[in-house]
Amino acid sequence: MKSLKNILSILTVTSFVMVSCNSFLDQLPDQRTELNTPGKISELLVTAYPGANYITFMEAMSDNVTDNFGMGNVENINTDPYFWRDVQGINQDTPTFYWNNCYSAIAASNQALEAIELLGDGPAYSSQKGEALLTRAYSHFMLVSLFSKMYDPTTADTDLGIPYVLEPEKVVWKDYDRKTVAYVYEQIEKDLKEGIPLINDNNYEVPGYHFTRRAAHAFAARFYLFKGDYQKVIDHAEIAFPSNNYVNSMRAWTTTYKEWTAEALSLNYTKATESSNLLLAQTTSWWARRFRGYRYSTSNEIIYSVFGGSGRVNVIGTQMAYNVWSQSNLSFYVRKFSEHFVRTSINATTGRGYVMVPLFTTEEVLLSRAEAHAMLGNNEAALQDLNTFVSQRVVNYSPSNHSLTEQKVRSYYGTEDSKEAIVKAALDMRRAEFMHEGLRWFDILRHKIPVTHRTSTGETHVLAADDLRRVLQIPEDALQAGLELNPR
């Protein structure tokens, strides 16, 4: 992975770098560096992955947190999302910061694509073109998933989308149109279909930081899961793991991980050498140092209701193998992240925190396929996938004691509908696996799950299935580009 200094020296577009007070898309591109070789374009594409972190606000909005009154860290980036208020601020870990960084990444993708076209779009640039298309699709996908309504085939043609930017900026104050969610999804799918066949894993020095073939199909599986095209979820999952060898690529929670200290786990969880990590991104964030101390964080009751244990029973019927620690016996957590602190200068005491984030993992692909099978009525196949997952998440796993069956899941969820029960089991496994990683929020959106947040003073706040606050508000600066705000 290239250093920050090298990234900045090769980056030819600054029009989307808006971490300061600059307005949305209001700068002209910087043409200091000529992109005239595959190597230079590859350097540029290092910056085509969002450098911002979504976990802080996505976790705080979800049902993974509660009011841990007594924890001292009270910040608006944690408090505003907990009450589903529009988050104030533009700095790291805010929705505005994430929006800006996604469009910065899109700018790099588009600059690379334009350079490739000007150079004749030959086979020497195929791999770079594939990566540029996938990175452009990914940033737009994350934006539309957070700042627009979740895809619904009955309303997608009218729901407000986000600007899908297809070319580098040439002018200041260009007008943008949000169009619709359906349009954005069409463009994402187009980029996916064109980009995936062009990816060449051999083009990467450190594949874990780039869209490899496997990571690209993992992205496609998530995209089609959100779209509700379940057969394509299965198709892409099977291409990602053609031998169905998920077990060999999953995190070793029942063995190696179980032996690690909190510090060792945090250092190893996001390593590029961890086979579970299909794609990693370096993000500017304080999440690794602050998440355990936030007032609105994960309690004993929540962590064990999800993982099982400590008197609580989950659908498996036993405690899962995740390592759990606590702070002040109030905030309970799995130590997944380690901060990389970069000083502003050699002798400075200030600087920025960076956190590596797994954007796609083996476990997500497997659980996405399980859910897709269930949605298509393939109950046996869905349960096989879920039991593959469970077998790697229970110490001393016993098929007779721990395997999920139709009868077991129906009984646990109190329904006679096997499909409903299996989907709920898949969602619970996803919630456990991605605790503290933000992805639970997407499942809440996709399945319109209500969320209840309580306060230490006895107040109850409910986010209903149709609450407009489920959609993040676009940054106010985007109004200067002619964009319509989300309704409230």
Strand content: 5-15%
Biggest sheet strand order reads: 2-7-6
Contiguous helical run count: 19
SSE class: mainly alpha
The topology string of helices and strands comes to: HHHEHHHHHHHHEHEHEEEEHHHHHHEE
Mean pLDDT: 92
Shape: globular
Instruction: State the assembly state of the protein chains.
Output: single chain
Total number of β-strand segments? Answer: 9
Sheet of most strands = 3 strands, antiparallel
Q: Distance between the terminal alpha carbons, to the nearest Å?
A: 41 Å
Radius of gyration of CA atoms, rounded to a whole number: 22 Å
- How many domains, in number, for the residues? 2
Low-confidence parts: 1-32
Helix content: 40-55%
Keywords:
488 residues, disordered N terminus, three-stranded antiparallel β-sheet, 2 domains, TPR-like_helical_dom_sf, 19 helices, single chain, mainly alpha, Serine Threonine Protein Phosphatase 5, Tetratricopeptide repeat, two-stranded antiparallel ribbon
Structural commentary:
InterPro entries: SusD-like_N, SusD_RagB_dom, TPR-like_helical_dom_sf. Pfam families: SusD-like_3 (PF14322), SusD_RagB (PF07980). Belongs to the SusD family. It is found in: Cell outer membrane. This is RagB/SusD family nutrient uptake outer membrane protein. It is a single chain. With 488 residues, the chain is mainly alpha-helical. The protein folds into 2 domains: 1-53 and 92-203 and 451-488, Serine Threonine Protein Phosphatase 5, Tetratricopeptide repeat, CATH 1.25.40.890; 241-449, no CATH class. Helix content is 41%, strand content 9%. The chain has 19 helices and 9 strands. The protein has helices at 4-10, 38-45, 55-61, 76-82, 95-118, 126-147, 181-195, 213-227, 230-240, 256-259, 262-268, 287-290, 300-307, 362-375, 379-391, 399-402, 406-413, 418-433, 440-446; strands at residues 66-67, 277-284, 296-297, 325-327, 331-333, 339-343, 351-361, 451-454, 460-463. It has a 3-stranded antiparallel β-sheet. A two-stranded antiparallel sheet has the order 1-3. β6 (339-343) and β7 (351-361) form a beta hairpin. α8 (213-227) runs parallel beside α14 and α17 packs across α18 (418-433). The two termini are 41 Å apart.
